[in-house]
């Protein structure tokens, strides 16, 4: 009898320890998802579902229209490919890569996905991040290409060419895929239950190494490069004293490129940094954490508007190419007339 009682006590003790471990693990999961076991984010997440839907639907429709239209125009209407049109075509492809996962992201905001869809979810998340940061680097390349053409015209004859532009675009595609795919596949841990795709990444995704590389190489370095190149180009055009339509169009392209970059991506990367401070327990106030969570989700939604803002670049590039084509056509016609008049005089 005493041995049976002792065994029962041992069993009850082990059961109690298992319960405590389960409670601790549940608290750990909650702390990973919300950075604090006592802070509920339901009042933030629920309204954000409707906000995401209201933002993503127009972005998806307008972005698909702009980017598919740009690809159609560039591939069918342009007879000669320039460096600018090559970069813009690659940017349009990056934008389409960002837009394709948006319907799945909208679905994931309202529904959980079964466990078997984890690989498909990671693949869609990869496409989303590749489109985002590939687009950032394409915008940077457009700025550097303009800087070379205007500020260093003699070096540009050696460095700029359609073939060099194609090789640069291919290098960026390879770089972005190889840099992002290994990281994003480790953003979420393997779960045995239904999960929310595009939401609730594991702590691996908020490690200092990942966030520092994301902020420096994903945003700050391209932003500083683009701002410096654009400022020097504008200064060069103003110093030259040119007021031609070509120079004015170039200034419009530069301003639209800066707008497409800084307006969507500056607030979202600031929000990512603040959320990183939350995960590092630097910010522990529940009200501040809720505000940061809402700020992060809102800015991440609005950062996708770059797919629509890039349409401004497409318009200016196409307009500039159209004007240059007309000017070249007029010059060729004038030269033909002069040649005919000279031969008639002879």
Q: How would you summarize this macromolecular structure in one to three sentences?
A:
The chain has 346 residues and is an all-alpha fold.
Question: What does this molecule look like?
Answer:
- The protein has 346 residues and is mainly alpha-helical.
- The chain has a single domain, classed as Rhodopsin 7-helix transmembrane proteins (Rhopdopsin 7-helix transmembrane proteins).
- The protein contains eleven helices and no strands.
- Helix 2 packs antiparallel against helix 3 and helix 3 packs parallel to helix 7.
- It is globular and about 65 Å long.
- It starts with a helix and ends with a helix.
- The C terminus is likely disordered.
Main beta sheet: none
CATH architecture type: Up-down Bundle
Class computed from helices, strands and strand pairing? mainly alpha
Principal-axes shape call: globular
Task: Determine the strand fraction and express it as a percent band.
Answer: under 5%
Task: Kindly provide the name of the CATH class.
Answer: Mainly Alpha
Q: State the end-to-end CA separation.
A: 131 Å
Q: What's the number of domains?
A: 1
| Element-level helix/strand string | HHHHHHHHHHH
The mean pLDDT is 78
- Going by CATH, what is the homologous superfamily? Rhodopsin 7-helix transmembrane proteins
Evaluate the radius of gyration.
Answer: 27 Å
Membrane topology: Multi-pass membrane protein
Transmembrane segments: 53-74, 86-106, 126-144, 164-185, 216-237, 249-274, 294-317
Protein name: G-protein coupled receptors family 1 profile domain-containing protein
Biased composition (Low complexity): 24-39
């Amino acid at each position: 009898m005493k041995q049976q009682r002792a065994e029962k006590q041992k069993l009850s003790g082990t059961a109690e320890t298992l319960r405590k471990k389960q409670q601790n693990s549940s608290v750990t999961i909650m702390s990973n998802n919300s950075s604090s076991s006592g802070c509920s984010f339901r009042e933030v997440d629920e309204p954000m579902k409707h906000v995401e839907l209201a933002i993503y639907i127009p972005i998806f429709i307008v972005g698909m229209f702009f980017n598919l239209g740009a690809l159609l125009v560039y591939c069918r209407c342009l007879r000669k490919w320039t460096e600018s049109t090559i970069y813009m075509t690659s940017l349009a492809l990056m934008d389409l890569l960002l837009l394709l996962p948006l319907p799945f992201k909208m679905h994931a905001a309202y529904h959980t996905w079964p466990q078997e869809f984890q690989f498909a979810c990671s693949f869609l998340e990869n496409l989303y991040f590749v489109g985002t940061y590939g687009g950032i680097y394409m915008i940077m390349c457009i700025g550097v290409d303009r800087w070379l053409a205007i500020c260093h015209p003699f070096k540009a004859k050696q460095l700029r060419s359609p073939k060099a532009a194609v090789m640069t675009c291919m290098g960026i595609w390879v770089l972005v895929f190889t840099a992002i795919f290994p990281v994003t596949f480790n953003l979420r841990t393997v779960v045995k239950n239904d999960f929310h795709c595009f939401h609730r990444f594991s702590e691996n995704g908020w490690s200092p190494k990942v966030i520092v590389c994301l902020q420096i190489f994903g945003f700050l370095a391209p932003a500083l490069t683009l701002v410096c190149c654009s400022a020097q180009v504008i200064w060069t055009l103003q110093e030259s004293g040119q007021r031609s339509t070509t120079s004015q169009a170039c200034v419009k392209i530069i301003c639209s490129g800066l707008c497409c970059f800084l307006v969507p991506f500056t607030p979202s990367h600031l929000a990512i940094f603040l959320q990183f401070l939350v995960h590092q327990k630097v910010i522990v106030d529940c009200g501040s954490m809720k505000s940061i969570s809402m700020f992060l989700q809102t800015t991440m939604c609005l950062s996708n508007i770059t797919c629509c803002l890039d349409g401004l670049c497409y318009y200016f590039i196409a307009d500039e190419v159209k004007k240059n084509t007309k000017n070249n056509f007029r010059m060729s016609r004038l030269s033909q007339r002069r040649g005919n008049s000279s031969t008639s005089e002879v």
